[in-house]
Amino acid sequence: MDLYQEAKQNRIDFQSEIDALELTEQSVENLRIKYLGKKGIIRYLFQGFSSVKPEEKKEYGQFVNVFKNEVEGKIEELQESLIKQKTVAEVFDHTMPGIRPQRGSLHPISLTMREIVKIFQEMGFDIEFGPEVETDYYNFAALNFPDNHPARDMQDTFFVEKDILLRTHTSPIQVRAMQKYQPPMRLITPGRVFRNEAVSARSHCIFHQIEGLYIDENVTFADLKTTIDIFAKRYFGKNVKTRFRPSFFPFVEPGAEVDVTCFICGGEGCRVCKKTGWLEIMGCGMVDPNVLEESGIDSEKYSGYAFGMGPDRITMLKYGIDDIRLFFDSDIKFLKQFK
Ligand code: PHE
Asked: Are residues 316 and 221 in the same domain?
């Protein structure tokens, strides 16, 4: 019998073996070894190819290939029906330890922002957002920055085109909110801001702010101080003290900067607070009547306060991070530490 004859016979035998098969793991495995194993029939048929008559080579090759696919397909089918017969408990070893999926974590700045926003929400502030690409009007003009006023130089601006820019602070949301809502309003507005500054360990051209705004009848500076003091104690710790230093922002009058006692050394003086015992955390003040009027709010009837703080700096202080660029490097090893 030449090899081609033999192959044909093998194919017939295979079919009868399948027909007579009693389905068990062992019988399927034996069949697999017999036909597909290293010393199996299929391999034997391929190895004998050179002894086949030249005029039959093509046909023979095709035949053996079809046979091989048939065997592989059938054995796979048998293996699958074996698995289907098993119960889940037989297939899965439920005593094996599980594989923990990799979970992402919140960015440290997101954590800080969420925590801060939550404290104000609990005090009755609503969240408000605004666009990152702003007009000169909302970012400056409506906030009482006159044209060509040197105060505009306080904030180096990325211009998209004339009068269109990347917001340099979250204060434009104040104006948008005052145009949109009637007093009383209490808003907290987290967001990203942009300034055309050289990137270094201490400053970045992208950072974040959280703006607060409260407008109602008879809002006073005492309300501002109380609210900020409550916030500082909740966020930094109940022994923290606050102090307000006079400062200038065109859209508030009077304006102030707020310091908290250093939450690292408790006010004793350390490296972080540069031995002063105090850390600056925000700018604030009473909304300038010009800004109220510009946004259609009667400044005789209403008054309000605004504040703006930098969660990047607060996060750096809180976790002892000494390079702001780490926030933007997407280094998983750094980011994973904040949970
Ligand atoms: N927008 C000011 C800044 O970016 C901060 C600020 C907000 C000051 C609200 C006063 C009131 O510097």
From this structure: yes
Q: Residue 68 sits in which domain range?
A: 3-91
Whether residues 8 and 149 share a domain: the answer is: no
Residue 274 parent element (H or E): none
Say if residue 79 is in the same domain as residue 143.
no
Mean predicted confidence (pLDDT) in 106-110: 94
Same domain assignment for residues 307 and 199: yes
pLDDT score recorded for residue 90: 78
Q: State how far the Cα of 204 lies from the Cα of 196, in Å rounded to an integer.
A: 9
What's the chain's average pLDDT? 92
Check pLDDT > 80 for residue 339: no
Same domain for 115 and 43: no
We report the CATH number of the domain holding residue 182 as 3.30.930.10
Which numbered atom of ligand 1 lies nearest the CA of 169? 4
Letter for the amino acid at 45? L
The sign one gets for the Cα dihedral 138, 143, 149, 152 is negative
pLDDT tens across 166-209, in order? 999 999 999 999 999 999 999 999 999 999 889 988 889 999 99
Q: Whose CA is nearest to atom 4 of ligand 1?
A: 169
Write out residues with Cβ below 6 Å of ligand 1: 169, 171, 211, 249, 252, 255, 283-285, 306-308
Per-residue model confidence as pLDDT tens digits over 72-107: 999 999 999 888 888 877 778 888 888 888 888 899
Geometric angle at alpha carbon 148, from 143 and 151, rounded to 5°: 55
Residue 97 lies in a domain: no
Q: What is d(CA 188, CA 166) in angstroms, rounded to the nearest whole number? A: 20
Residue whose CA lies nearest to ligand 1 atom number 8 = 283
Q: How far is the CA of 281 from the centre of ligand 1 (A)?
A: 11
Q: Which pLDDT band, with edges at 50, 70 and 90, does 151 fall under?
A: low
